Design the sequence.
């Protein structure tokens, strides 16, 4: 199977602090990982594409300085929400893709971020 | 960001009924995927479609890749209570590289009454 693990599953932080979310592919190597944001009762919106060993590609309207992405290995990508604000509260989901042409992306279980 | 139009937005059905939902796009996609998401969880892949006209089944689920490449359909037969959740279609305009990112539909909430 293809397992993607996301940590933490829930986090509460104070405004102004930074939060790091990890996404790991447990049983395969992922050259590409994707980060999504999902508001309640809404769809998944792609934030950025994380490529191992290179800079992430951000979608239009997503602040790269606020949402720092690091893909340091073939099994780990991290998303850091910097200077968190209550409006950053959301469900963040990562996915990892097996291979370059395989569009079957496997998702982590998500991280519920609450900024107070 | 870009989204796919998915309908219906929600469905409330009796156990045993069949369910149909569809997804449409204004542009051509070369891959269609269908996912189910339970509350507080990430989406789980149900069916993947790679060819126009393709019809693929996974148990009680059947999905089709539209001939025009701009739509896809998901059918669930003989629904059961555990089918409850949100179903998302997702499309990819390409096969690899930068065009391989997934674009998600707006979701269909399914409620099944025993």
Sequence:
């Amino acid at each position: 199977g293809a397992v993607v693990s996301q940590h933490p599953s829930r986090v509460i932080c104070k405004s102004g602090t930074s939060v790091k979310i990890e996404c790991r592919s447990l049983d395969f190597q992922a050259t590409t990982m994707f980060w999504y944001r999902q508001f309640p009762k809404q769809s998944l919106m792609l934030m950025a594409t994380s490529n191992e060993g290179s800079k992430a590609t951000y979608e239009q309207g997503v602040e790269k300085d606020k949402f720092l992405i690091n893909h340091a290995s073939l099994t780990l990508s991290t998303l850091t929400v910097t200077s968190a604000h209550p409006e950053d509260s959301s469900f963040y989901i990562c996915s990892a893709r097996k291979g370059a042409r395989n569009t079957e992306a496997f998702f982590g279980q998500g991280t519920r971020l609450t900024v107070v | 960001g870009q989204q796919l139009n998915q309908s219906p937005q929600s469905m409330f059905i009796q156990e045993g009924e069949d369910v149909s939902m569809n997804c449409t796009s204004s542009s051509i996609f070369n891959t269609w995927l269908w996912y189910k998401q339970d509350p507080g969880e990430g989406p789980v892949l149900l069916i993947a479609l790679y060819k126009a006209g393709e019809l693929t089944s996974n148990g009680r689920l059947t999905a089709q890749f539209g001939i025009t490449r701009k739509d896809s359909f998901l059918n669930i037969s003989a629904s059961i209570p555990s089918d409850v959740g949100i179903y998302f279609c997702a499309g990819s305009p390409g096969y690899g590289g930068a065009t391989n990112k997934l674009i998600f539909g707006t979701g269909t909430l399914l409620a099944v009454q025993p």
Summary: The mean pLDDT of chain B is 91. Chain B is about 0% helix and 50% strand. The first strand of chain B starts at residue 5 and ends at 7.
